[in-house]
Write a structure and sequence with these properties.
heterodimer; A: about 250 residues; alpha+beta; Ubiquitin-like (UB roll); Fumarate Reductase Iron-sulfur Protein, Chain B, domain 2; 5-stranded mixed sheet; 8 helices; 7 strands; B: about 650 residues; alpha/beta; Flavocytochrome C3, Chain A, domain 1; Methane Monooxygenase Hydroxylase, Chain G, domain 1; about 35% helix; globular; binds flavin-adenine dinucleotide; binds FE2/S2 (inorganic) cluster
Chain lengths: ~250, ~650
């Protein structure tokens, strides 16, 4: 067992969307390096409760990197310093004794703060609702093996479909663009034969919804890819652009 | 003393040969015309595989659907975390599989405590699920020729599990979620994310709505409907530590139980053999390492007690591959209950490894040598990465350390063949019902069941109920709904008013300890009796010493959590009562008093071949036991053997 850590936490506190927020500073001692980042916040919250201060609100659920609930900006980086790692899968062994850690919510105009570290990410759902699917009703499908899909195509589609919808890409982008998120879904379905019939309509509706939600433009700074906990590649954005222009000029 | 009633439950299983029951019933069920479907409003609580698939399919048929979930998006339901795969009887590998074999394995795997007709239907519709998911664009693993790939899961000798690397649940849920969002776009589904159901409203004996709390504003709301579908998942978090997502809870099911829905087999909880062991007291959840790993990983402990050598320094002949030794036919692929108990047995006997001695090795050395790192990475890459992130140990170089953890609940609200509970109009789908897995669920069959319920069963059976029932109009302003709101308000107020000194987390942890020690992998009469007393004491402590800050009319995660723990504290007692009354061992339910000479579960078919469905009479009061007898016509009752 390695030694425990003593930490200074600067945490964003904001009572509600219309209230002003501020950083509050908390000292936390004896943090085990084998704790996850969220378990460290659990300990902070127990300490706050004992002192009569309301615990810090943050989203989380699976705590294993797949549901996309969690998402904190840690020392300026969405999901913290480790590549391809969600906040819940970040362990305290990656910090040092005496560190000061700054913890903020996602910052983006399209994601207003709900409370403390929780933001509203429903715009992402509305983008999917606009066209992120294959229009097939239950009961209509042919046999699963009716259309072979080359193995490498299926794998590539899964690489894109692996997106957990956490919104880190938006938080990382200086323009708060949602292009990586949208491109992941467009790519997933454009790669597979099942997605072909609606290919053009899908990309146009999803992009137009993205614009309507107030996300910024993509200026190719690649920050989104660096922040993505699933390693979704920016080549998907190139594919999205191709799909979009093909659909636009078709 | 518990009161016992027989003959009160009608399972509505159709007559005739098992292969024809579902077709026959489908032909008998009443239909509703497309124009009339538009007149019905259906409430779906939960958007996991069961809820999302049901909501989407019903909306496609023309019903108006209101879908509720706790998370900020329906895509984040606990189903998203399922790793290993989903079963279907396609027999693509040509290895002798069939609908009958999937049915047989599932009944046997469940240790003969499930309903044959339900399981057969599940196996029948399994193939349609795969077809539908492929059509939705679920990127299943493929062979080089472009056709669907399969792997093997525990309790089977064939390869029938379809998968997307180690993230099958994610891809299946995203498929169902996208179908759901399409219906949202078409205006057929109204979504209520960040809404928690706090009560069921029953009017004239039928389920007519729910009370919810808007988790952002704290506002309590009444929602009316012609039927309520409960798809709220399992209650494994009663143990505090489990592989379930943190928000998984029993509240919705428990509220329905208190309103008259019987709870079936609550003590049947699955302890999964391959999870990352507990490492510290701050631990907030346990992480599963998918069962699929047992395809290539070999489980062992040192032959010498208390051997502290590094695993890589322990030579082959000094390793005890105890599953292969005890169960030569199935080896590492025995069902979960068997594998978990075997691990516990070795650790209790002093052969466990790691700093706590409560772990065994899952070793990929042979597979890595045989297939190479790339093949293993392509199959399990994300699981290996997750293991490394959590433990700081590299499973490509050192065997994983694993130990059993609470994972899944076979018990749930009692439902008939139509998935209807004992409250007419309340249907229960997915992990929240008790239906198909008996006393032990086989791997890759929960995803199958959730999607079977939602895509292929409820669309038929719900219509029959609505066609056959006359329902008076109701309004949220009716007394039943307004009273429901007041009651929910009172409960929240009561929690806040305690204003004690103990945190909810600490009380929940203590409950988890009681359940794990006495109602976990091994149970005894005396332990269970002690547990019942301890739960009662703890419940009292909760209501006198819990401390929850903040108010009810705002986003208040502490209040949400305290409400769920308050329900776990009531529900836990029912689990213990059920475990106490079942004086036999079956599947996951291992009563130490009832075991064979070689420590296998000893069933008592003469006295316990039934579903135990409990009727509520009050917190702390003895519930009434209703027995639904189980008959096995197709798979003769035999002692399970995996040797
Ligand atoms: C780590 C892990 C891996 C697994 N891997 C596999 C696998 O490989 N194969 C397999 O077959 N099974 C697997 N399982 C089991 C399987 O994932 C679950 O049994 C299944 O997904 C449950 O689906 P569900 O739709 O019934 O419920 P869930 O997915 O749990 O969904 C519950 C829904 O109900 C909502 N809800 C709950 N309470 C309320 C309330 N009071 N008010 C409003 N909404 C509420 C939630 O918000 C959520 O939307 C795994 C389970 C775990 C934990
Ligand atoms: S809590 Fe689910 S991804 Fe972090």
């Amino acid at each position: 067992m390695s030694d425990t850590l003593n930490l200074t936490l600067k945490v964003w506190r904001q009572a509600g969307p219309d209230q002003p927020g501020e950083f509050r500073v908390y000292q936390l001692s004896d943090v085990s390096p084998d704790m996850s980042f969220l378990e460290m916040l659990d300990v902070l919250n127990e300490q706050l409760l004992a002192q009569g201060e309301e615990p810090v609100a943050f989203d989380h659920d699976c705590r294993e990197g797949i549901c996309g609930c969690c998402g904190l900006v840690i020392n300026g980086q969405p999901h913290g310093p480790l590549r391809e790692t969600t906040t819940c899968q970040l362990y305290m062994r990656h910090f040092k004794d005496g560190d000061t850690i700054v913890i903020e919510p996602w910052r983006a105009a399209a994601f207003p703060v709900v409370k403390d570290l929780i933001v509203d990410r429903t715009p992402l759902d509305r983008i999917i609702a606009a066209g992120g699917y294959v229009s097939v009703n239950t009961g209509q499908a042919p046999d699963g093996n009716a259309i072979p899909v080359p193995q490498e195509v299926a794998e590539k589609a899964l690489d894109a479909a692996a997106c957990i919808g956490c919104g880190a890409c938006v938080a990382a982008c200086k323009n708060a663009s949602a292009m990586l998120f949208v491109s992941a879904k467009v790519s997933h379905l454009a790669l597979l034969p099942q997605g072909h019939p609606e290919r053009k309509k899908r990309v146009l509706s999803m992009v137009s919804q993205m614009d309507a939600e107030g996300f910024g433009a993509c200026t190719n700074t690649y920050e989104c890819e660096a922040a993505c906990p699933e390693g979704v590649s920016i080549t998907n954005i190139a594919r999205l652009n191709r799909e979009y222009f093909k659909a636009l000029f078709a | 003393m518990v009161q016992v009633k027989e003959g009160t439950l009608d399972s509505k299983v159709p007559d005739g040969p098992i292969t024809e029951k579902w077709d026959r019933r489908r032909n008998e069920l009443k239909l509703i015309s497309p124009t009339n479907k538009r007149k019905f409003e259906i409430i779906v609580v939960g958007t996991g595989l069961a809820g999302a698939s049901a909501a989407a399919s019903l909306a496609e048929l023309g019903y108006n659907v209101k879908a509720f979930c706790i998370q900020d998006s329906p895509r984040r339901a606990h189903s998203i975390a399922a790793q290993g795969g989903i079963n279907a009887a396609k027999n693509y590998p040509n290895d002798g599989d069939s609908i009958w074999r999937l049915f047989y394995d599932t009944v046997k795997g469940g240790d003969f405590r499930s309903r044959e007709a339900n399981v057969y239907r599940l196996a029948q519709v399994s193939n349609h699920i795969i077809d539908h998911c492929v059509a939705q664009g679920v990127p299943f693993a493929r062979e080089y020729g472009g056709l669907l790939a399969n792997r093997t899961f525990g309790g089977a000798l064939v390869s029938r599990t379809f998968y997307c690397r180690g993230q099958t649940g994610q891809q299946l849920l995203l498929g169902a979620y996208s179908a759901l969002m399409r219906q949202v776009h078409l205006g057929k589904v109204t979504l209520y994310p960040r809404h928690e159901m706090l009560d069921l409203i029953v009017v004239n004996g039928t389920a007519r709505g729910i009370i919810t709390r808007d988790l952002i504003s704290g506002k309590l709301e009444a929602h009316t409907g012609h039927a309520v579908l409960l798809c709220t998942g399992g209650y494994g978090n009663v143990f505090y530590l489990s592989t379930n997502a943190k928000a998984s809870n029993v509240t919705a099911a428990w509220r329905c139980h208190k309103r008259g829905a019987f709870f079936a087999n609550p003590c049947f909880t699955q302890i999964h053999p391959t999870c990352i062991p507990v490492s510290g007291s701050y631990q907030s959840k346990l992480t599963l390492m998918s069962e699929s790993l047992r395809n290539d990983g070999r489980v062992w402990v040192p032959k010498k007690k208390g051997d502290t050598r590094h695993p890589n320094d322990i030579p082959e002949e000094e390793r005890d591959y105890y599953l292969e030794r005890r169960y030569p036919a199935y080896g590492n692929m025995v069902p979960r209950d068997v594998a978990s108990r075997a691990a516990k047995e070795r650790c209790d006997a002093g052969y466990g490894v790691g700093s706590t001695g409560m772990a065994v090795y899952l070793d990929f050395k042979d597979a890595l040598q045989r297939d190479g790192v790339d093949v293993i990475r392509s199959k399990y890459g994300n699981l290996f990465d997750m293991y490394l992130k959590i433990t700081n140990e590299n499973p490509y170089e050192v065997p994983m350390r694993i130990y059993p953890a609470v994972h899944y609940t076979m018990g749930g609200l009692w439902v008939d063949y139509h998935l209807q509970s004992t409250i007419p109009g309340l249907f229960v789908l997915g992990e929240a019902n008790f239906s198909d897995h008996g006393a032990n669920r086989l791997g890759a069959s929960a995803l199958m069941q959730g999607l079977a319920d939602g895509y292929f069963i409820i669309p038929y059976t719900l219509g029959d109920y609505l066609a056959a029932t006359t329902l008076e109009p109701v309004s949220p302003d009716d007394a039943a709904f307004q009273d429901g709101i007041k009651e929910a308000e009172g409960r929240l107020r009561k929690i806040l008013d305690v204003d004690g000194t103990e945190s909810t987390t600490s009380l929940h942890r203590q409950l988890g300890q009681i359940m794990w020690n006495h109602c976990g992998m091994a149970r005894t009469e005396q332990g269970l009796k002690e547990a019942r007393d301890q739960i009662r004491e703890l419940r009292e402590r909760f209501w006198t010493s819990v401390r929850v800050l903040g108010g009810p009319q705002t986003l208040n995660q502490s209040l949400e959590y305290a409400g769920r723990v308050a329900d776990f504290l009531e529900f836990a007692e029912l689990m213990v009562v059920d475990a106490l009354h079942r004086k036999e061992s079956c599947g996951c339910h291992f009563r130490e008093e009832y075991q064979t000479e070689d420590n296998e579960a000893l069933r008592d078919d003469e006295n316990f071949c039934y579903v135990a469905a409990w009727e509520f009479h009050g917190v702390g009061e003895d519930p009434t036991l209703h027995k639904e007898p189980l008959t096995f016509q197709e798979v003769p009752l035999t002692t399970r053997s995996y040797k």
